[in-house]
Specification:
alpha+beta; 434 Repressor (Amino-terminal Domain); ten-stranded mixed β-sheet; 10 strands; elongated
């Protein structure tokens, strides 16, 4: 009996074609996308469709003009974004922008502006990292969280663009440094405890979800500390199975 050939969905064929154009092995392509080879294999077979954030990253790697298809698949129209380069860098097309006028503040008439600035488009996830005393969202893998919006940041602010995402803060235990409702940019490539002592990080805990804390490494012991000293530091004991999601690079807030 003749077997019926299963036709892959369009998104699967496009991903497979992109890898062919780039002439990369499955492992090399997955590494460039910052995903596992298993995840890429599922995409190419058509058994699991990429998440919105995955499509954004595929667009980043694809470049123009293929990038537009992937970004639209992520839920954005061509007017939402402009051309992206590898690892999240973006350049805005002049024909897609309204007429802009650059105004320099103060009396510095001889101020020289950079001829070209490179921006990184960072996905803002629909997810919350809670401060001590509150419950964060139960998101283990940042790639599984839906993308609610985008933030453009200077390239220098994002050392690992492909693994940088934004989360919203829930709670005020990190105030006055970071307040409730602030947006924090998290570099998920920075997870080595030896490099993070004294830095603000996002961790994931089975019972608490995503947590925002200051990470401390004291004599080999790992602890999470709040800016609000009424909360006791949380040590990493055998019964506290938390892991570092990434380092907080910067944060912003909207004026009220």
């Amino acid at each position: 009996m003749k077997k019926t050939k299963v036709r892959r969905p369009e998104w699967s064929r496009r991903i497979l074609a992109l890898r062919g154009v780039l002439q990369l092995t499955q492992a090399a392509f997955a590494s460039r996308l910052h995903y596992s080879a298993m995840a890429l294999s599922r995409w190419e077979r058509g058994t699991h469709e990429p998440t919105a954030q995955s499509y954004i990253q595929l667009g980043n790697v694809a470049g123009e003009p293929q990038c537009w298809w992937f970004w639209e698949r992520a839920g954005f129209s061509s007017t939402d974004l402009s051309r992206m380069f590898d690892e999240g860098n973006v350049r805005l097309r002049n024909e897609q922008l309204p007429e802009l006028e650059i105004i320099t503040a103060g009396s510095r008439k001889n101020l020289k502006l950079p001829v070209r600035s490179r921006l990184v488009v960072v996905p803002m996830l629909v997810a919350h990292a809670a401060t001590h005393g509150l419950q964060g969202d139960d998101v283990i893998d940042m790639d599984t969280a839906p993308v609610g919006d985008l933030i453009a940041a200077p390239e220098a602010w994002c050392p690992n663009p492909g693994q940088t995402t934004c989360l919203t803060v829930r709670g005020s235990a990190m105030a006055p440094l970071i307040n409730e409702g602030d947006i924090v940019a998290v570099d998920c490539a920075q997870t080595d405890p030896k490099q993070l002592s004294g830095k603000i990080v996002v961790t994931w805990q089975p019972q608490r979800g995503l947590m925002l804390s200051r990470f401390l490494l004291v004599n080999g012991a790992q602890m999470l500390e709040s800016e609000d000293l009424s909360y006791q530091p949380v040590p990493r004991l055998k019964n506290r199975n938390w892991r570092i999601v990434g380092r907080v690079l910067w944060w912003i807030r909207k004026a009220t």
